[in-house]
Amino acid sequence: MIFETERCIIKTINADDKPDLFSMCDDINVWTYLGGINTAEWHRKNVENLENIDPMLLSNRWTLRNKANNIFLGYLSLDTYYDSDDDIQLSYMLISSQWGNGYASEAAREIIRYAFNERKLNKLFAETQSANLVSCKLLEKLGFYKVKELIRFDAEQTLYAVDNPVS
What we know:
The protein is 27% helix and 32% strand. It is α+β, with helices and mostly antiparallel strands. The chain has a single domain, classed as Aminopeptidase, CATH 3.40.630. The protein has a five-stranded antiparallel sheet with strand order 1-2-3-4-5, with helices on both faces. A three-stranded antiparallel sheet has the order 6-8-7. The chain starts with a strand and ends with a strand.
């Protein structure tokens, strides 16, 4: 599956993406607000085993590239939210050299559109470390609202949600 925005290509993740995903795993700035079991090493192991991941799961994970030059920008996914089989969570990570350019909001808008229009979801969740003010601001800019704060990975997290405007 491939999505295009004004400046980005969003395509289903595959084994050819491994080198770029490894580089993101090694970008220490990406892990500033990520913790718990989802460490860089944990992600490296998942990237290494990309071929063994269920294709249905991979169909909801995408790489993000610059449309003009095909430079790798990051990763997005729609996955079940931690303790729920029904709730779906939007996640995103961009390599730190691309922060602040608006790529995350541009790509997230497209994935939100897909989640509501194609997957017919009624609500979408996102969780970020409360200290990650840039990510909190981004989610609010995308129309997400705060649901609650909780402790996960030994840090305060904020759970956000956005409702499908047509449901």
